[in-house]
From TrEMBL:
<keyword id="KW-0411">Iron-sulfur</keyword>
<dbReference type="GO" id="GO:0006089">
    <property type="term" value="P:lactate metabolic process"/>
</dbReference>
<dbReference type="InterPro" id="IPR037171">
    <property type="entry name" value="NagB/RpiA_transferase-like"/>
</dbReference>
<feature type="domain" description="LUD">
    <location>
        <begin position="84"/>
        <end position="294"/>
    </location>
</feature>
<protein>
    <submittedName>
        <fullName>(4Fe-4S)-binding protein</fullName>
    </submittedName>
</protein>
<keyword id="KW-0004">4Fe-4S</keyword>
<keyword id="KW-0813">Transport</keyword>
<dbReference type="Pfam" id="PF02589">
    <property type="entry name" value="LUD_dom"/>
</dbReference>
<keyword id="KW-0677">Repeat</keyword>
<dbReference type="GO" id="GO:0046872">
    <property type="term" value="F:metal ion binding"/>
</dbReference>
<keyword id="KW-0479">Metal-binding</keyword>
<dbReference type="InterPro" id="IPR024185">
    <property type="entry name" value="FTHF_cligase-like_sf"/>
</dbReference>
<dbReference type="InterPro" id="IPR024569">
    <property type="entry name" value="LutB_C"/>
</dbReference>
<dbReference type="InterPro" id="IPR003741">
    <property type="entry name" value="LUD_dom"/>
</dbReference>
<keyword id="KW-0408">Iron</keyword>
<dbReference type="InterPro" id="IPR017896">
    <property type="entry name" value="4Fe4S_Fe-S-bd"/>
</dbReference>
<dbReference type="Pfam" id="PF11870">
    <property type="entry name" value="LutB_C"/>
</dbReference>
């Protein structure tokens, strides 16, 4: 059997969670009107930023670690074909079965078929961005299989018939009073006298999930890393639910994006220092679970690895955009982004919100399907400074903006500006006319209609009393 990455096709429409029903500006407008959402986001992101900053400051070689992580990811992208084939060979030799999925439809069909073969009507799930991306839960439900999320935040989102709004903390938009109401309404067997005290809420979820763990024979997970030299898969998490899913069931199915491969064990050392500090503000993850194939009598006795493309080859094909595949899903860029903090994750319309979502989602789907996302940024650069693998998100945003089809009026305005700047006399007259902006519009810093739409959310630079040409001529 031969393997290949596939042609650079984008993720298919009509399946998965990469495209929203609204443009970002429209969805953000609704989010900005939700005061409770904004309070929840501000509290959560401020707390995570503070914790992360403190533990990062403890490492004198943090910048060197970032550079190492960036270099390792660049090496992986340059050698992805051979590393994936090596990973496949090692997983197979260890008793696992590897499946290649070109897109979300193929991946969902593979997983659904594998679950049906076991005879189980229910699966337990470890938190996984890849399975959310492809809409696996919806596909399983349509096939008569009940998926149960075991991560507490993912469980809250699932029981609330909601969608995740953060890469690391999917229920960041919910407060504890809202969570109590969700549990009372949707969690089987919950105490009707349940309070909104966090330990009480966690205990209720633990009771429900423990019974589920012990009675479900199939688990579905994602993977934070796949080590090519040994075929080892790794999942890092904070609650222990992942450890239960990865060890108790008889069958384990892992869906992994092809970019998650790393060459060797020493390379993993770099990422296990970067990821917890940048994501949860911890020195190390409370639970780091690794497994290699099948071990007779210990853990799952059937292991399947689904390697997912779903647009990743299209991202890889763009030299200016492929660094988006370096992302290790830490969410550091979300926690420092002023746009995300005010709008939340749902406004992005994709399972990947925030700055990384603004560059990754348009490339996975094709820019035309997410044309507004590259503009969901102030280009302040905070995301670049926070990224543990140095993804230059601001430059990538500008690159993607240049790929967007601009409105006819905007193209006409740019052509007129270019023509004016190319003709010195006309440009000089335009400079003199620009002085009128000092008395036009909002406090002299806006533009009159129809250009007022542009200055409604930004001020024009103040026009100087004297142009350089006038200054030069007077001297």
């Amino acid at each position: 059997m031969t393997t290949f990455l596939g042609m650079p096709a984008t993720a298919p429409r009509g399946v998965g969670n990469l495209r929203g029903d609204e443009t970002f500006p429209a969805a953000a407008h609704h989010a900005l009107a939700d005061d409770q959402l904004r309070r929840n986001l501000r509290h959560a992101t401020t707390t995570i930023r503070g914790k992360s900053g403190r533990v990062i400051a403890e490492l004198p070689d943090w910048q060197e670690l970032r550079s190492a992580g960036s270099a390792l990811k660049a090496f992986v992208m340059a050698n992805l074909d051979s590393l994936l084939e090596q990973l496949e060979a090692r997983v197979t030799a260890a008793g696992g079965v590897v499946h290649w999925a070109a897109d979300a439809n193929e991946a969902n069909a593979i997983v659904l078929d594998l679950v049906r073969r076991t005879g189980s009507e229910r699966v337990i799930k470890v938190k996984s961005m890849a399975t959310q991306e492809i809409g696996l839960n919806e596909a399983l439900e349509a096939g008569g299989i009940q998926p149960i999320e075991t991560d507490l935040a993912e469980l809250i989102v699932q029981l609330g018939n909601d969608k995740p709004s953060h890469i690391l903390v999917p229920a960041i938009h919910r407060n504890r009073a809202e969570i109590r109401e969700i549990f009372l309404k949707s969690m089987p067997g919950v105490d009707p006298d349940l309070t909104d005290d966090p330990p009480v809420l966690a205990a209720a979820a633990r009771k429900y999930l423990r019974e589920t763990f012990l009675s479900t024979t199939v688990a579905v997970s994602g993977a934070n890393f796949g080590i090519a030299e040994t075929g080892t898969l790794a999942v890092v998490e904070s609650e222990g639910n992942g450890r239960m899913c990865l060890t108790l069931p008889d069958t384990l199915i892992t869906v992994m994006g092809i970019e998650k491969v790393v060459p060797s064990w020493p390379d993993l050392e770099v990422f296990l220092q970067l990821l917890p500090r940048a994501s949860t503000g911890e020195r190390m993850n409370p639970y780091t679970t690794m497994w290699t194939g099948v071990t007779p009598g210990d853990g799952p006795q059937n292991f399947h690895l689904v390697l997912l493309d779903n647009g990743r080859s299209a991202v890889l094909a763009d030299p200016a955009g492929r660094a988006a595949l370096h992302c290790i899903r830490c969410s550091a860029c979300l926690n420092v982004c002023p746009v995300y903090e005010r709008t939340g994750g749902h406004a992005y319309g994709s399972v990947y919100p925030g700055p990384i979502g603004a560059v990754l989602s348009p490339q996975l789907t094709g820019v035309a399907d997410n044309a507004s996302l590259p503009y969901a940024s102030s280009l302040c650069g905070a995301c670049f400074d926070a990224c543990p693998v140095k993804i230059d998100i601001p430059s990538m945003l500008v690159h993607l903006r240049n790929k967007v089809s601009h409105p006819a009026a905007e193209r006409a305005a740019m052509r007129a500006a270019a023509y004016t700047m190319d003709h010195p006399k006309l440009y000089a007259r335009a400079q003199r006319a620009a002085k009128l902006a000092r008395i036009a519009g909002r406090r002299g810093r806006g533009l009159p209609p129809p250009f007022s739409g542009w200055t409604a959310s930004r001020d024009l630079p103040e026009v100087p009393q004297q142009t350089f040409r006038d200054w030069w001529a007077s001297r």
